[in-house]
Design goal:
Strand content of chain A: 15-25%
Helix content of chain A: 25-40%
Strand content of chain B: under 5%
Shape of chain B: globular
Order of helices and strands of chain B: EEHHHHHHHHHH
Largest interface: A-B, 18 and 24 residues
Largest sheet of chain B: 2 strands, antiparallel
Number of strands of chain B: 2
Oligomer: heterodimer
Radius of gyration of chain B: 20 Å
Distance between the termini of chain B: 19 Å
Number of strands of chain A: 7
Number of helices of chain A: 8
Structural class of chain B: mainly alpha
Distance between the termini of chain A: 44 Å
Order of helices and strands of chain A: HEEHEHHEHEHEHEH
């Protein structure tokens, strides 16, 4: 039942919003993964980011797509927690819990071992609309733990204009979802994260983006 | 006026003619690209395929019902305004104002749908023109005010006001065009404007040497412009008497006016693109670019032709 709801939500609502209210331009679309396991690593400006990315992958993969989300924000009891878990299909991760000795990314690694596709926003939070912030290290650790899983860098622009942090009002804007060339994890997670950041900066530089001040 | 399936018969014949032309064009492109493996016809093939989609959607919407036709035209305006607002620099503070700008579209097309010409003609150039700067002023942010007001006003005029003339022509034409109704007038305008684009492009490709506007649109040539307009004028004089209340001489003049204004709409949009530093306004239509790249000539041709017909042929 919930699985059907999730399918209908993504097949109808999300695709209609992406098509009519947003309109996504997708340079290098062919670089999107055809199957899992894979990690989509994108910059984060809006709650719409996850939905926009998920609308670009074929519906037959829907069951395998899981956005990685902060447990303290999304995995709360109540309507939003239910929606995030069952409809969006998040994998909750405890922010900062790596310092306590456990492996907060264990559920992500298990998902990748099952062949799932993860969506990760390495900036950690949506932050200032349409501005890149420093990447967190988690993605580097995950890529290092699963070095055979491709990580696809994705640069998005415009969604933070359509629905920025702190607003409940969706204003239609055409949005850009530019797909970069995949890369793999390596020994040094810092070097990996730096490389990933560089890829996103390169993707951003390919486009002529209007000012938003 | 004879009708078929409730549609003016001449519009049905015109539609069949458009599809015949499209079929011939597709066949030519297929022949040209058949033995080619270098991929240089890729864009041309994309273009023709997109024409099938666009003409299919347009004719289907126009022939379905009056309401569907007007909603379709309003949706084109919406896509055009969205593309425009996504291209230009905007201020964060104006986000909610921009949402109101979208709401002007259903209202403007509603005035056209109920044939309320007086409101239709003042709603955007007077009311919206006054309301949006005031709204922005009330928000209290003066930094970049003039640019925000100027770009929004021009954008609303170009994407909503001018294009909504198509809906006005459709609705108001029924009473004034005994030959083929409002639909005949709209088909005449849209067919000739799009045909003119293709004709200018084709003449330019085949014979073009001397540039018209080297700084704005370097691919436009005098040969393409004159050849295209002449072809459009000829076609207009042939089909005008069957789709509009005009005889062949007036139809030829209308064709000339559509050709020239279409060209002006095209280079105006090109100047905007140059200023913004983009090649296409978007990626919505493969081979063509964005929606504004496709309707740029209509932004001038639609109001100019509508007012030309109104002035000379409406009581």
């Amino acid at each position: 039942m919930v699985r059907l709801l999730r399918f209908l939500f993504f097949a109808i609502v999300v695709r209609a919003v992406a098509l009519v209210a947003l309109g996504l331009t997708v340079p290098h679309r062919a670089r999107l993964p055809k199957k899992g396991p894979a990690v989509l690593a994108a910059n984060h400006n809006s709650h719409l980011d996850t939905l926009a990315l998920m609308s670009l992958l074929p519906l037959r993969l829907l069951d395998t797509i899981h956005p990685v989300a902060a447990a303290d924000y999304f995995a709360k009891p109540g309507g939003m927690g239910w929606f995030a878990k069952n409809i969006i299909g998040i994998i909750p991760v405890k922010r900062g819990s790596g310092k306590e000795g456990g492996n907060p990314l264990a559920p992500c690694e298990e998902a990748l071992d099952r062949g799932d596709i993860l969506i990760i926003f390495p900036e950690g939070s949506r932050g200032e609309p349409e501005a890149l912030t420093t990447f967190k290290k988690g993605i580097g650790h995950l890529a290092k733990a699963r070095p055979k899983v491709p990580v696809i860098p994705i640069f998005m622009h415009g969604l933070g204009k359509a629905l920025p942090k702190g607003s409940a009002l969706l204003v239609p804007f055409n949005c850009l979802v530019s797909v970069g060339e995949l890369l793999y994890g390596r020994e040094s997670h810092d070097a990996f994260v730096a490389e990933l950041e560089a890829r996103l900066t390169t993707l951003a530089a390919e486009e002529k983006l209007p000012a938003w001040e | 006026m004879t009708t078929m399936f409730g549609i003016p018969a001449n519009v049905v014949y015109a539609t069949a003619g458009v599809y015949a032309l499209l079929f011939v064009a597709s066949a030519i492109v297929w022949m040209m690209s058949r033995s080619d493996e270098s991929g240089k016809y890729r864009e041309l093939k994309d273009r023709v395929r997109s024409w099938w989609w666009m003409i299919g959607a347009f004719t289907l919407a126009m022939l379905a019902s009056r309401t569907v036709a007007i909603v379709f035209l309003a949706f084109i305006s919406y896509l055009a305004l969205k593309e425009y607002l996504s291209l230009i620099p905007t201020r964060r503070i104006d986000r909610s104002v921009l949402l109101f700008a979208y709401l002007a579209i259903p209202l403007q097309f509603y005035w056209a749908a109920i044939d309320w010409y007086g409101m239709f003609i003042v709603f955007i150039p007077v009311w919206m023109f006054l309301v949006f700067p005031a709204l922005m002023a009330l928000r209290g942010e003066t930094q970049g005010f003039l640019r925000a007001v100027g770009t929004l006003s021009w954008g609303l005029m170009m994407t909503v006001f001018t294009l909504s003339h198509m809906a006005m022509l459709l609705v108001s034409g029924d009473a004034e065009n005994p030959v083929a109704g409002g639909l005949g007038l709209l088909f005449f305008l849209v067919m000739l404007t799009q045909f003119n684009d293709v004709a200018q492009y084709t003449w330019g490709k085949l014979t073009g040497r001397h540039r018209v506007t080297p700084t704005v649109s370097p691919k436009k040539t005098w040969e393409g412009l004159i050849g295209g307009i002449a072809t459009t004028t000829l076609l207009a004089s042939l089909i005008g008497p069957y789709l509009t209340p005009m005889d062949w001489r007036w139809s030829a003049l209308a064709g000339l006016i559509i050709g020239v204004s279409g060209f002006l709409g095209d280079i105006t949009m090109s100047a905007m693109k140059r200023d913004l530093g983009v090649k296409d306004t978007g990626g919505l239509i493969p081979g063509h670019g964005g929606i504004l790249d496709r309707v740029d000539s209509l932004t001038y041709a639609a109001p100019v032709f509508t007012h030309f017909v109104r002035y000379f042929f409406y009581p």
